[in-house]
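Problem: given the chain below (265 residues), write out its structure.
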Amino acid sequence: MPMLNAADLLAMFGMEPQQAIGYLQSKGFEITWDWHEADAAIHARAFTVAKAARLDLLEDIRNALIDNFRGGKTLRDFQRELTPLLQAKGWWGKQIIVDSAGNAEKVQLGSPRRLATIYQTNAQSAYMSGRYRSAMAAVKTHPYWMYIAINDSRTRPSHRALNGKVFRWDDPIWQYILPPNGFNCRCRFIALTEREVKARGLNIESSEGNISFKTIDAGVNKRTGEINTSRVVVLRTTDAAGKAIVFSPDAGFSGMPMQSLLRDR
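Solution.
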């Protein structure tokens, strides 16, 4: 078995935990009422949790994530340690909340399910930022990126259809489909050498002529009745059997937040 060189190790492993922590620490805070108020550009620069309308709550949640990454802890650890703190501050369960405009609404604040979504989405984004930085540092030796989906019953069919797709690192499609591509998305990508691509018999695709965009509904503002929209990419390709497939990320995820952040630094 050939020895791995520094570029191989960087592309395969990098220093994702440390980089993930740095990604979270570098963000500011953004107070939002609904999740669709923050698009990919905001997520690139700010940590936000819908209806966490106090700065100290956002700090508590982000600090709990950072502590979780540093300690190599689990989702259950995150829920167990953060729950009593949020309960003590009154951010828990279903409550009638009055917003800054004086509108009252019954909303779901903290819950085990919400903490799971917060944890999984932020952890995926943070770890993908580390993987992205490592992959970018190794593009000379590992210029091909392969999309990886978890093939189980919880995987979205459209995400599963992209599993094994290979594009060059500089193909424009990576600006829009780098995971996560929705809440609780577990997809990732790996960087490959030309030799690895050939050894696996993989096909290198190009998105040229196969990308378009569409505007989709992103939920209704219950206070105003306004329909929120989101612009997402549309990728047309084929699956392993040659069947035509169309892929679009979920509303609010058509972008590469970590790339935007890294380019600003």
